[in-house]
Amino acid sequence: MVLRETYLSQLRQLKDQHLIKVVTGIRRCGKSTLLEQFRDELLAEGVEQNQIIFLNFEELETQTLTDYQALYAHISKKMQPKVMNYVFLDEVQNVEDFEKAVDSLFVKKNVDLYLTGSNAFMLSGELATLLSGRYISIHVQPFSFQEYVAAFDEADKQSSTGNINNNTDRLFAQYLDNSSLPEAVTLFQQAPQMVNAYLRDVCDTVLYKDIARRHDIRGMTNLERTMQFLLSSIGSTISATNIAENLGGISHSTVISYVEYLTRAYLFYKAQRYDIRGKRLLQTQEKYYVVDLGMRTILLSESLGTDRGRKLENVVYLELLRRGEEVWVGKQKEKEVDFLVQQKSGQRTYYQVAYTAADTETLDRELAPLKSIHDAYPKYLITTDLGAEEYEGIRHLNIVDWLLSPSGSPLW
To answer: Does the model's pTM come out above 0.90?
Structure first.
């Protein structure tokens, strides 16, 4: 089992803090496993089993607890007095009015509360109002490339032959085309013929359960067409207007709603544009990136190895999000910088991404947007090219080296 160290370290820091820990992310990205790993750490530290209440609301055993009053009564009965109780509520959005039980549990001094949910709607409306300033969210994504490599290393250790080829360049080429959802990675290793069916099931569950049922969408055709358009347009600036114009038969307002639903279900992430010279966020022509490139491959019926430039940009965007900063698309006059990262400290970093910049013409084109920015903040060009070079203060890094480097290292 791959330890999700990025997220475990956050949970360790938040342990026993009087905040509700809300773990979010697309279905099957590993939220339940993360909570199980953290529970195991608590037990290893000496927390007693009866201090831990762990409920998964996708299991049949919890169906009698999907009313908030029954849930609250069940937890109250199991709680131990005079010690901290660690309460884990997995996929809690399946409990009707769950926020009422959560609010009542939160006021107890001996409860450390952890929730997971598969869409951003659980943090909207009444829950956000009730718990304003009292919760902190931890967003979980599918495997990073570091975790992906670790999964194959683990499979190699368990293999009777021990001859799995875990060359990182080969694995990265694989990572660009295939799913990084934890269970999909396991299936790829053990039963690769099942991966496509698994990914389609995950996507259908998100579309029908997290979106259509919640928003009472009867005809799914236009929702699916909107999703297909976003999948084919990753890395391109788009708007609701040009989606509606390209698709036809769907209104501008419906497109806006559907795109919001798809992002709130964590199928896509929106990157706004930032005017570097004007120092302001722009409200039009955003970019969208998909949560899992394997889904894109099967839903667009793509041949493996195609569209690698866009996929590389998608990988870099998700990795920057994992590293915990604001990520925007930079606009510098008529030029575009792929990513502008705004750090909490006020530090800023710029990234340009290209599959290769091996020839002089491509290198000059990719460096031009970065050279047009006349400030002292770090600037990087990330490609699949080997070696690390520097051009007028702009560092040219290999994508695999960058992904495998810890944040804070010289590569970062």
So the answer is: yes
